[in-house]
Amino acid sequence: MKIPILMYHSISDGNNPLSVSIENFDKQMRFMSQNGYKTMSLQKLTNIPDRKTFIITFDDGYEDVFLNALPILKKYDFTATCFFVSNFIGKYNAWDENKKEFIKLNLMNINQISLWIDNNMDVGSHTSDHKNLVNLDCNEKKLQIINPKKYFNEVFKLDVKTFSYPFGSFDDECFNIVKDNYNFAVTTNRSRYIFNKFNNCKLPRVPINKKDNIFKFYLKINTIYEDIKFKK
Description:
Blueprint: E1 2-3, E2 5-8, E3 10-11, E4 19-20, H1 22-34, E5 38-39, E6 53-60, H2 63-75, E7 81-84, H3 110-118, E8 122-125, H4 138-156, E9 162-164, H5 172-181, E10 184-190, E11 193-194, E12 203-207, H6 214-222
Parallel strand pairs: 2-6, 2-12, 3-4, 5-6, 6-7, 7-8, 9-10, 10-12
Antiparallel strand pairs: 1-11
């Protein structure tokens, strides 16, 4: 069975290139619901149900995911995992400030994350500071990867078991640290998930972009459109 692990960032009608419009996100979730898909947690990938299944992920922890995506997820009885940058909770996407056309996006605060959790949504780690891990020495890699686990345990009493690599960037050293501290990790490598093909800490995803119409969304979900883009 091939399971699409959808990758989103922001759900907003703003101009950020990472943002999917509220209308399009609703259309995509309606499409999945009407076609009999159910969501599952990343943490249950080792026990795949015999039905149409998909996984929803959001990187960075933007406030608009709480404001705009959460009501839509609840409407269709879907769950999702949001990967948070632990030192930037309640702040903004400062890691993008060096981009030519930087657009500031607020990040969820502690109260919003608590409500996210209360609505049966999952929390994952996206490092402490959203740094490119391959540029760091081993000790700094460990701090960036491991410290968010401590944070979420102290603040939310959560044992976070899932991780997302910032910029999709990692090397063998990063991978080994992640593997020793998390059960599952997602990348930006493209493909649907195929059982026994991928390492659980190098999971591919299906990127959903601002300009994707519902036909392209269908191709990504139900055909080899994304699978042939996988790079070893």
